[in-house]
Amino acid sequence: MNRLTPSHLAVPFFALALSACSGDDAAEAPPADTWEVSSPAFADGAAIPYKYTCDSRDFPVALESPEVNWEAGPAGTMSYAIVVKHLAIAEGLPPEDPNYFKGFMWAIWDIPASVLKLPANISRAQMPTEIPGAQQWSNRNQFGWFAPCPNADPATVIADPSTRKTDNYGIDVYAIPTATVTLPVRETSHNNYTLTLTKHLDQVNIGKGRLGATSDAISGAAPVPLDPATIVYPAGT
Fold first, then answer.
1. Max CA-CA distance within the chain?
2. What CATH code is carried by the domain that includes residue 197?
3. 227 pLDDT band (50/70/90 cuts)?
4. What's the distance, CA 162 to chain centroid?
């Protein structure tokens, strides 16, 4: 379970929001550093259960997503967004690396400020019915949970078990000061809109926190190369 911290843009916005409130309202507003992100499925930094990963199944695969909970954000929060990152890539490679875009797996945004829970097994649709108004996207499944899969090629591990990796993942929750996110234009340098969206969220959020996880899952079959012609992007991008 991780505490959320304000972004570099949080201080002026937070101060402005408090100045507009009465004394009682300001006293009731939760400070950003008291936020917590958690899941009943696994503790912060622990192994994510195999049911939420590619383990023993073809990659990519449509699987159940875990439940994620968070506390109410700082004053001025009007919606939330969540991004799942493969940290060995997203934070282990420089942005100019040709594989950098692969570290940004799945996103859901326009979650109303009144919603503090991502239910398990969210439906695989651009606008999941479990959270009215929210939209989701992933760089493999388009509209559904992208299961962690650090050992995507099982033949490699079978040939040499010592190559089996345990990688870190981050489920990042962003507090957004608008009810909806103005979607950025797609970048032509890569086909992963989750990365493009994440860069935008990093600029506009007023707070961000992380639920960490690990995985050593091994897929049942190596991934098939992604055909760019099959990608369906979020509407409006």
1. 66
2. 3.90.280.10
3. confident
4. 29
